[in-house]
């Protein structure tokens, strides 16, 4: 990952960024990442995870209710005497 240093940033811009980050519960660095991604029109962070993507793919086909198998008593743990 690369890092960047921004010099001569107006105090007002920094203040507004800090307030925006605090409002979103993030650090200023975390707040700047999506701003820069949006500015260059490139998003390398998937909008959702794999499970959400699979769910969205199969959601139009409906769901299936499965019965849970009956539970029996637990077995005794092994002994190492």
Primary descriptors:
81 residues, mainly alpha, 3 helices, 43% helix
Write the layout of secondary structure elements.
Blueprint: H1 11-23, H2 28-40, H3 50-58
What's the gist of this structure?
The protein has helices at 11-23, 28-40, 50-58.
Write up this protein.
The N and C termini lie far apart (52 Å). The model has no long low-confidence stretch (mean pLDDT 88). The protein is 43% helix and 0% strand. The protein has 81 residues and is mainly alpha-helical.
Molecular shape: elongated
Task: Give the total of beta strands.
Answer: 0
Distance between the termini: 52 Å
Instruction: Report the uncertain regions.
Output: none
Structural class assignment: mainly alpha
Quote the beta fraction. Answer: under 5%
Mean pLDDT: 88
Order of helices and strands: HHH
- Rg, nearest Å: 25 Å
Biggest sheet: strands, sense, closure? Answer: none
Note the total helix count.
3
